[in-house]
Amino acid sequence: MTTSVYASPARKSVLEQKQRSERRKLMLYGAFFVIALIAPYVVYPVFLMKILCFALFAVAFNLLLGYVGLLSFGHAAFLATGGYTTGYLLSTYSGLTPELAILAGMSASTLLGLGFGLLAIRRQGIYFAMITLALAQLVFFFYVQSSFTGGEDGLHGIPRGKLLGVINLADNLAMYYFVLAVFMFGFAVVHRMVHSPYGHVLKAIKENEPRATSLGYNVDRYKLVAFVISAALAGLAGSVKTIVFQLASLNDAHWHMSGEVVLMTLVGGVGTLLGPVVGAAFVVSLEHQLAQSALGDWVNVILGVIFILCVLMFRAGIIGEFQKFYKKNFK
Amino acid sequence: MSMIFGVPIAVLSGQLLLGLINGAFYALLSLGLAVIFGLLKIINFAHGAFYMLGALCTVVLFNTLGVNYWVALILAPLIVGVLGVLIEFFLLRKIANEDHIYSLLLTFGLALVIQGVLTNIYGVSGLRYPIPEVFRGGVNLGFMFLPYYRAWVIVAALVVCIGTWFMIEKTKLGSYLRAGTENSQLMQAFGINVPLLVSLTYGFGVMLAAFAGVLAAPIYSVTPVMGANILIIVFAVVVIGGMGSILGAVITGLAMGIIEGLTKVFYPEASSTVIFLVMVLVLLVRPSGLFGKEA
To answer: A72, A99, A236, B294: which could join A132 in a potential S-S bond, CB 3.0 to 4.6 Å?
Structure first.
């Protein structure tokens, strides 16, 4: 009788190593969670909420760029659509609870994502970026001209309302824990997707699309589903952000916002789960610091320089470089 | 006054002319994008910034050194073209072997830097540049008034577009360029200096953008952000036409300008979005673009 392959010492050590790295990951997430729970008592909660909203936005974006290899330059459209829908509903219907308004915002951006996706996946590579950018500009002009968005002025003084009709979100701490819960939900969705068989097919498409096609996968459908989910989560981020700041403006729909989410993902690490979160925290904090300093007018220049440096030298991003460093020195 | 479809002919032809001029700019810019894409396989997100640099160079050269329009027409594209060659040599070349998405992001970052720096220097209110003396006034064609300068813009843009087409399709240098588009490694093996060709191609594409900028300086308000919005429209034009053919890019550019002009007459609310809507239609009917070869 031969020894089972499962019992071989080599296999065992591989399994053990895997378990150890899983445990380490769990500890890391746990540490993040504990920090997130304590953070609002140390740092201004609205600032933290801004980071969480943009982190969710970047996580959604990274699902496409990092795991399917699709560069969308139109994600601002989903952020804005979620925000405007939620904002409009909350300021028009006073009895509406925030979670329903968020669901509506998310549904609107999901539908828009379906439309964008159906059009954009007809072309590949560089065309994909141009098409999504052009479609987002179409949406931008639509919002400029529409009356329900308030045009150039945007929507102001949107009531936060009571979550489920019970919890008053006007309280910043309550609001913060709600935003944290929403973020964790979005992160969990992407985490689950990436580690599912579906996510592995996405990675296969990213690595070698013709081969994935030849293996019998309906590549376009996989791409479309990923695009729609990414749009839905970006819309969720926009909806929640609108409630936090009680305003929805054209800034969210501008191409500049689409560029910013690319930068967040790139800085943090494309194709890593935590990368977009770290990147969003970095970019939001940087902008916050710059806005208060004498360099306020130079924000765009500095963002552009970071873009260039990242592309030239740190393509793996903060998390990616850290992983490389860790693997080289501790394994 | 005579009317067509309930619109005075003078209004209609006036908007058609404006559309044709916008179309000439779209044509020049998408041509430059197509030339760069052909050899470098990247989309130049900084193209709008180079267009703006051309216009701004013209104004600044005039205000500080009194350089006249005709000299600027040569000098500004040359200055911007040299800048383009430097950018290709020092930045783009470093990541030529990486995923093309990174080159795209690099040019996007460049556009942010160029626009940001110049906004801090010149503000966003817009600089004015006088129409050159020769082109002041215009001619009454009976059904419309044709300002000389606008006629010149269309003629100059068309001449440059056709000249570019001729150079690429009919000359020896153009044949190198086309060969490089097909297979640059093989061409390198034949002893042609491909890296030099790549630098020059990027410089030339950028020069076309700057040339469009010089033409635009007297009729549009010159601001550091003037290139950003037009670039997104040009992207839509490129998607509509496909980047497969030079003449295709030119024809699509002009046609989109005219469609935009007509929309201004008949349904002004949609004039800023009509080109994007055409893009959606083309993607539905003919995904590879009107003149495109690749899927």
So the answer is: A72
